Automatic annotation (TrEMBL):
The keyword Transferase applies. This is 23S rRNA (Guanine(745)-N(1))-methyltransferase. Coiled coil: none annotated. Residues 89-184 form the Methyltransferase domain. Residues 4-47 form the 23S rRNA (guanine(745)-N(1))-methyltransferase N-terminal domain. SUPFAM superfamilies: S-adenosyl-L-methionine-dependent methyltransferases (SSF53335). InterPro entries: Methyltranfer_dom, Methyltransf_Superfamily, RlmA_N, rRNA_m1G-MeTrfase_A_prd, SAM-dependent_MTases_sf. Zn(2+) binds at residues 6, 9, 22, 26. Its EC number is 2.1.1.187. One of its GO terms (molecular function) is metal ion binding.
Amino acid sequence: MTVFSCPVCGERLDKKEKTYACPKGHSYDIAAEGYVHLLPPNRMHSKSPGDNKQMVAARRRFLEAGYYRIFSDKLNELVHRYAGLSPVLLDAGCGEGYYTGRLFESLQSHGGTPRIFGFDISKCAVKAAAKKYKEISFAVGSIFGIPVADGAVDCVTDIFAPIVEDELFRVLKPGGTLILAVPGRRHLFGLKEILYDAPYENEYRETEYAGFSFVERVPVEGDIRLENNETMMNLFMMTPYYYKTGVEGGERLRRAAVLETHIEFDFLIYKKVG
């Protein structure tokens, strides 16, 4: 049974052989890779929103090289602890599926029978995720109008995606778990030292969300050393700095022989109240 809902009427979708369909007759084709497109044209801010094909490929190369594995391992541990081994789980802003796929494999390897769903606004990212991780159901969709039925999931993971508290609250079951990942103060500071004349630390905030009780903050940190410029550029392309760095900063990175940087995530755990 799917958790996806119709973006037009909000009814829960039924998965058939080649389509997802709702009781009111709205139907959505399943792509050859296995994903479904649930982002209406009037909610797309561009012809192809989100990461493009080159950015998705860069992200996959960097993540699969293992540089952020410590974050993936901790996420798996937190889901085990707070949602059990067989949750109905939604990865909000799943990207090309690295964290989603490793989470599914971890839960299964511990004897669980998870049902995992993921969505992202980038069609390129969802296509890549669905092509590789066949056991997971993926959709193109927006965090500002999540294409998932009310109270349908036990756990939501949100790794650097926008935080839209009303939507995250809506899709979780009462008592469900929300796991957010936000950058720590000195995450990628070494990269910013190359890109910017005046590098800055990330803001640290204690954040409360309506309808949720805060459980704990779990910091995870380490250091990486990159000696391959292509790998440095892969990292750069998967960060927000790629959009807002000037030409000079980008050129400095392209000329760099070594990049040493601290990496730091904070996982924030919440429970839905009521």
